[in-house]
Write a structure and sequence with these properties.
- By secondary structure, this protein is of the alpha+beta class.
- The chain has two domains: 30-155 and 346-368; 159-338, no CATH class.
- Helices cover 16% and strands 35% of the residues.
- It has five helices and 18 strands.
- The chain has helices at 2-21, 159-165, 239-246, 263-274, 290-303, and strands at residues 34-40, 44-53, 57-64, 69-78, 94-96, 104-110, 117-119, 127-129, 140-157, 169-176, 186-191, 198-204, 216-222, 314-321, 332-337, 340-351, 354-355, 363-368.
- β2 (44-53) and β3 (57-64) form a beta hairpin.
- The relative contact order is 0.17.
């Protein structure tokens, strides 16, 4: 009986040991790190801070995006909650000096040297290591990731300014693009002495009328604004998906089902979103393939919900004929560029997390060693 009891204890101990060393299903690895935004100046996402660890090291990676560049970094990784110390990044135990045009920086810190800290003389000032070295699986560490960043910030233009400046009505002259042009379904010229005058790529969302080569008058609506009920705008809830499609630049890119995406594929995807029962006549579409159309629709459905275009992208602007006299006039959209003016700004940035209990907006976050 005693032998059986001892054997049972040994088996249970081995089982518990084995369970203890099995990685957590939520373990952060190089391919699946913990990621938080790198926030610049409290208002801009300048990139990300990624964290993961193996059995020997913890890795903290700064990666800027959107044209932002690193000008230097300061990093706290420690066992002491930094809120009990100070948010002064100059006191952090790890740092890198100014780096011109850097967009990525990685810290590789041995788990065996991660320490706790206290303030010298018990008050604000220099941070002093406690000498309690080392962390292992299940231990919590605190990370304060600070950086200096510089980037181009829009100071004029943008979507709101474009929306506000749209005219109420314009003259529209549209022609089918095929076979002379392969970037849109229509080539549209806007006139009338308005801010919108010019030439644009155009697309059809009205499956009940044809487009002639005669000029007509149209009301103008932003797809990002409040739109009154329009007779031939079915499924207006899909305008966000339409804006997503127009900003993915599919045309000319390779498709998983073969060939490259064409303007015909894009047009048929738009019809699918706004009148799914419509069976198009493809004579004006040029090369088109249904499986490529389905890929575009699937991508937009998966990723385009609540999409709002920004600087450097295009906005779908709706042209609604004031009168349709067959065959003149068709509800259509044009791609209007969203232009912005920029200035270079340099900002303080922090890995997004818990705000320090002080008047500034410095932040830190917690990470559990895997």
């Amino acid at each position: 009986m005693k032998k059986q009891l001892v054997l049972g204890v040994i088996v249970l101990t081995l089982l518990m040991t084995a369970l203890a060393i099995v990685p957590s299903p939520n373990a952060h690895t190089q391919s699946d790190p913990y990621v938080t935004d790198l926030i610049a100046g409290q208002h801009y996402v300048a990139g990300t801070v990624s964290v993961w660890n193996d059995g020997s090291y913890i890795y903290v990676i700064y990666q800027t995006t959107g044209g932002w560049e690193l000008t230097g970094t300061n990093l706290y990784v420690g066992k002491t909650d930094p809120a009990t110390l100070t948010s002064a990044p100059g006191q952090f135990p790890y740092s890198t000096p100014y780096q011109s045009s850097a967009t990525r920086h990685e810290y590789k810190i041995a788990l065996s040297v991660i320490d706790g800290y206290h303030l010298k003389n018990g008050h604000s000032g220099k941070w002093v290591a406690n000498g309690t070295l080392g962390v292992g699986p299940g231990d919590k560490v605190y990370i304060a990731a600070h950086a200096g960043v510089c980037g181009e910030i829009p100071v004029s233009g943008g979507l709101e300014e474009l929306d506000a400046g749209l005219p109420e009505q314009v003259n529209v002259l549209a022609t089918h693009s095929y076979p002379t042009y392969d970037q849109s379904y229509f080539q549209v010229t806007i006139s009338g002495g308005t801010s919108l005058d010019g030439a644009y790529n155009g697309w059809c969302i009205d499956t009940y009328h044809n487009m002639s080569t005669e000029q007509y008058l149209a009301n103008v609506y932003s797809s990002n604004g409040i739109i009154p009920p329009l007779a031939y705008l079915y499924h207006p809830e899909n305008l966000d998906l339409l804006n997503y499609i127009l900003n993915q630049h599919y045309i000319g890119k390779s498709s998983a089902c073969g060939g490259v995406y064409t303007f015909g594929d894009v047009q048929r995807a738009i019809w699918t979103l706004f009148d799914p029962d419509y069976v198009p006549l493809v004579s004006m579409l040029g090369p088109s393939k249904l499986c490529r159309v389905n890929e575009i629709v699937a991508d937009a459905t998966a990723h385009g919900e609540n999409f709002v275009p920004g600087c450097g992208q295009v906005l779908a602007v709706i042209l609604d004929p004031t009168e349709i006299v067959w065959p003149v006039g068709q509800l259509a959209i044009i791609e209007v560029p969203i232009t912005c003016g920029y200035e270079t700004h340099c900002e303080t940035a922090w890995g997004n997390g818990i705000q320090f209990p002080s008047p500034n907006w410095a932040m830190y976050f917690e990470y559990t060693i895997q």
